[in-house]
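Checklist before submission:
- one chain only
- standard amino acids only
- sequence pasted in full

Submission:
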Amino acid sequence: MVTGTREVGRTQFDSLAPVDVLSGSAVNQVVSGDLSDDLAQLLPSFNVQRLPAADGQAFVRPATLRGLSADETLVLVNGKRYHRSALLGTRGAQASDLSSIPNFSIGRIEVLRDGAAAQYGSDAIAGVINIILDDKPGMHAFGQFSRYYAGDGNEYQTGLRGGMALGDRGSVVFSGEYDHAEATSRTRQRPDAIAFQAAHPNLDVPNPVQRWGQPDLESVAGTVNAHYQLTDAVDLYGFVVARDGEGVTDFNWRNPDGTASVYSASPAFPGFSFTSIYPAGFSPKFGTQYSDLQSTVGARGDITDAFSYDLSASEGRSRIHYTLNQSLNASLGPASPTSFYLGRLEQREFNLNADFVYKLDLGMYRPVNVAFGAERRVETYGIRAGDPASYAIGPGASSGLAPNSNGFPGFTPLQAGDFGQRSYAGYIDVEVQPVEQLTLGAAGRYETYSVFGDTFNYKFSGRYELTHNLALRATYSTGFRAPTPGQLYSTSTSQGLDTKTLQVFNSGRLASNDPIAVALGAKPLKPEKSDSITAGLTFRSGFGLSGSIDAYQIKLRDRFGQSNSFAVPASLPNPNHYTSVSFFTNDFDTRTRGIDAVVSYTHPVGPGRATVSLAYNYNQTKVTSAPSASIPSDTQRIVFEERLPQHNATGSLNYAIGPVGLMVRGRYYGPWTDSSGNATGDIFQRFSGRAFMDVSATYRFAEHFSIEAGADNVLDTYPDEATFQANRGLIYSRNAPYDTDGGQYFVRLNMDF
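Returned file contents:
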């Protein structure tokens, strides 16, 4: 393993901190083509939500490690920082989109479950996910079809990976993957739609009027991973990760008898009503076109036996275009279009890295490993305006008709622009093994940012071998996460449906330096800061049993979040008719405590070989302080403390006998709490724990081929119904930390040469 250490030759057992290593074959045993889903099924401390009809989060879903925010986990590809998504998600988290990395290109994944900001910089508070691309020669291909038991969600995946050796000095590996996933629906007809149909029997009201489920998605992704050793001192390398895709999801239905902001008569348009366009109401269709591109080039090598270097340059980009169909701008009356281009979000990053390792022989058991280096990083966030009609405030607005494209207002010229931030960093990372049994580590990193100033973080690690098969280990570290340009400067408008009143409401999220936000108490954003401690033991045996157990605590100060919603004072302009506004803020502290336990056993059993793995995570977060008005009630406290299960577990059994392979995997998610997200008067519901079982069987034939069939959630288990969402047709909570679409079967054909 290479994550969390700059000492060559470390293994999971030797590591100073807990690291999970997932093989590429394990990743591809999960049905989903989304890497986030794969990690959520394999790692109990990793959670991901579906979030249907949640604007951009229906496509870029928030994934969390140890219950912290999505952008408090650093993502690397081949050890290099991977770019963030252009989307600002839950409470403004701006994280990397793991679904942009094709599963079929992965050689292995290393997940460091420990704070590592002193080693890698911003974001590495919960841990680090390092995705290692496959670099082996050979030809591999697959085709897969899957469908949910309910008869929807057909997904077609296919991929090709080819690698060739460049003599005995290097290799180049190309991969490509196509994924088409059709929509799912776990929806009942809305009660108000049933009443509307009864009141208007001459109309044909769709059943259901809106769809709750996974979106339609289609994407193409590919990678190139290459290196060539010119001399013993110069090894040139580079890789590219690219993806393009599009998707569509539903929004809330607009009821002609209840949505006054759309269907009311207006003196600005005598005799006109939108019933002439949408007599049975309408559900806007929110679409996205997204592309991601990451490229890295570099040179590395050994200058002497004791001194090595790695110089690299990386550029990453996330670009998201939004569209809205089957909608309108009510304030424009009959002049309103029904389709809109809403604008574009873009995240760009450019990194320069210089890393060095020197082995200093001081007569100890091993030479002292001294790593040091520097980084320059430029991050830019861009917003481009949508069609004028998507943000227009037409003549009907003065009489109460809603401005902007209905469902998701377009980005305005005032919101548009490019916002940047530059940082420089230097670090030193030392590992010492004075005697065979004892290893010590220390790291420090100084970083300065153009926007908010500088920060220094450090880490101390220790490991002591009680025997050759049993070791104790512990770490203490400080960390930080710097606010991004998107969080510092961008603004957005969203629409929701109140589950009590069934009225559409407009919410504005303002930049913290916006005059309205400042008037409501907003302060300049500053970095989150953390103190983390991890302690545990790791063991192995000569008969195939190995594992670890680690306890951890993460204290976060000035944690980043979104303020409460405030009504806009009458003395301030409110041209967008905001029902409420909020802003990003550093306004509370939390403490997360937990336990990770992992056990694996590999051994011949009968005529075959069995591999058993068990993993358990307990994770508890407490809000320890909220010094201002950000959390004046229990609402946000409940969201932070109870929104994810505290108990998660996964276990799998793989058994191989000749050409046959069998897999059984169990997953357990403990109780958790959901909120309605209403404009006012939030409603909470407690959901009970759920267990799921996945099975598959593989048969290898004709030397180069294998066929695999099975099912995720083979027992077709569903969670409790979300009772407070029933009046808008939603059956299962969209905030669930697992798939709520029931059982899903699949068949997969593999080819290997």
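Reviewer check: Residues 191-199 form the longest helix (9 residues).
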